[in-house]
């Protein structure tokens, strides 16, 4: 097993907080460009490629914000978690196509049987309630 137990610090460092704010501002700047140039007069300023430029601004904002976030302590922990997850996924024994199809049919049959059973219970309870209230 490749996991480590570490107690995380409850308070983030000052540099990390600045990076969090910077990442959030970059994402918000990309979204601001998207909505600011949504008006027809402002959109005309960007030319014929207005929607593509707006989409590019959002993508650049998200990528830049994500890159700044990855420079923080939580970002490094996220990268470490993803690399460990990838390592663990290599250990997984994936089912063959035939096994997957067989298990899918088992799930479908169980769902049908349980839904019919629950529907039957519902019908019986409904009829008993109507009979009881009708007396």
TrEMBL record:
Compartmental location: Membrane
Source taxon at top rank: Bacteria
GO molecular function: protein transmembrane transporter activity
Residues annotated as signal peptide: none
Segments passing through the bilayer: 20-38, 53-72, 105-125
Gene Ontology CC annotation, any one: plasma membrane
The keyword Ubl conjugation appears for this protein: no
Entry's Gene Ontology BP terms: intracellular protein transmembrane transport; protein secretion; protein targeting; protein transport by the Sec complex
InterPro entries recorded: SecE_bac (IPR005807), SecE_sf (IPR038379), Translocase_SecE/Sec61-g (IPR001901)
Entry keyword set: Cell membrane, Membrane, Protein transport, Translocation, Transmembrane, Transmembrane helix, Transport
Protein's job: Essential subunit of the Sec protein translocation channel SecYEG. Clamps together the 2 halves of SecY. May contact the channel plug during translocation.
Family membership noted in the UniProt record: Belongs to the SecE/SEC61-gamma family.
Assembly mode: Component of the Sec protein translocase complex. Heterotrimer consisting of SecY, SecE and SecG subunits. The heterotrimers can form oligomers, although 1 heterotrimer is thought to be able to translocate proteins. Interacts with the ribosome. Interacts with SecDF, and other proteins may be involved. Interacts with SecA.
Listed name of the protein: Protein translocase subunit SecE
Organism: Stenotrophomonas terrae
Top-level taxonomy: Bacteria, Pseudomonadati, Pseudomonadota, Gammaproteobacteria, Lysobacterales
